[in-house]
Amino acid sequence: MTGKISALDLGQGELSEATKTYFAKCEEKLGLVPNVLKAYAFDDKKLRAFTDMYNDLMLGESGLSKLEREMIAVAVSSINHCYYCLTAHGAAVRQLSGDPALGEMMVMNFRAADLSPRQTAMLEFAVKLTEEPAKIVETDRAALRQAGFTDRDIWDIASTAAFFNMSNRVAAAIDMRPNDEYHAMAR
Description:
This protein has 187 residues and is an all-alpha fold. Helices cover 66% and strands 0% of the residues.
């Protein structure tokens, strides 16, 4: 599988000008085009849907910090054992926090990290939503409110957790591989 982005051979469709611009922006800001984007590049419409949702959830306006959203991505991906997302978003946690050890703890077991009560409540909710979605009840939302989250924040926590559950499943199904560069980032 060396050098491949995934186990599927879908090729790359004709990239729109908007996608070419987006890929160039990734190269400029990240120094790479994430393999997840390359994997979706076989269908520009699917790629745009994925990137629009991702950018809204992870970079859009929210009561959650960018680091907190990345922490959700890692906690969910840890439960799902998603190699791609743990590698890519573990690097993001290391980078945003300035703490390589935090990134590693988040990947292995967020409960080992020295987190605030707010972050712990957020991640416990995201994990329960990942493992037992049918068992989410009002007391779970009340615990988040008690930790200082608004109802809009609860929506963002749930949406971020749900997005990464979907992404983890696609990544697992196609054996998506992270860019090699992620392994060395922010160490």
